Structure to design on (157 residues):
């Protein structure tokens, strides 16, 4: 009697909980990026006491990832390993977190070349608890938010 190979694709067991978790994670990450890029102004502070806009690509309780467009003709604004990042919620107020670069890599997104940075957020600052609460909000919002289908009329009184 021959043994059947149960490791072939047609015999694999799919864990629906794992698939659901993976889809929720993809939705959460997409929601975080949309939120960060459309509703927040995010800037890094450089040694010359100026701000440079950056694009957040990922957030977690202890860190964040961001990217800046690569330009061979212009030096990157990221010249130090430790610096503050400002998250502007409106034109007059921001949450400042201090980060330390842990890794750096090149990436291409939609035909544009970027330098991506992975950073640890300094847990000793007074703003760390607010940063963690913000990340928690984004995680929960990403899991429970719904897409507006435009199926409700709005009336102004």
């Amino acid at each position: 009697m021959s043994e059947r190979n149960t490791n072939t694709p047609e015999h694999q067991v799919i864990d629906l909980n794992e698939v659901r978790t993976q889809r929720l994670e993809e939705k959460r990450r997409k929601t975080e990026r949309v939120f960060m890029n459309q509703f927040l102004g995010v800037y890094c502070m450089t040694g010359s006491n100026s701000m440079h806009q950056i694009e957040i690509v990922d957030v977690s309780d202890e860190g964040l990832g961001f990217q800046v467009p690569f330009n061979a003709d212009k030096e990157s604004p990221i010249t130090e390993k430790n610096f503050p990042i400002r998250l502007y919620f409106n034109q007059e107020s921001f949450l400042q977190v201090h980060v330390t670069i842990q890794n750096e890599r090149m990436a291409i997104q939609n035909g544009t070349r970027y330098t991506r940075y992975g950073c640890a957020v300094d847990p000793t600052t007074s703003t760390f608890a607010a940063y963690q609460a913000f990340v928690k909000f984004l995680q929960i919002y990403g899991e429970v938010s719904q897409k507006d289908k435009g199926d409700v009329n709005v009336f102004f009184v």
The radius of gyration is 21 Å.
